[in-house]
User: Which sequence fits this backbone?
């Protein structure tokens, strides 16, 4: 079969890169936050008194 130049260019253009499920739209790996970091931030607690009631609250480091 004989193709015109325009058809040949269309047929020979590179195929789209298939996106893997663990990649973002730009192809990079998704950024995940480490939950352990947040647990460490709230490691110290203190007790405060408001209107006669005592509350234990975390302090962010």
Assistant:
């Amino acid at each position: 079969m004989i193709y015109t130049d325009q058809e040949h260019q269309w047929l020979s253009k590179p195929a789209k890169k298939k996106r893997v499920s663990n990649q973002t739209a730009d192809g990079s790996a998704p950024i995940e936050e480490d939950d352990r970091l947040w647990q460490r931030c709230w490691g110290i607690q203190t007790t405060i008194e408001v209107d006669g009631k005592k509350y234990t609250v975390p302090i962010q480091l």
In short: The radius of gyration is 29 Å. Residues 37-61 form one domain. The longest helix spans residues 5-12. Strands lie at 44-50, 53-59.
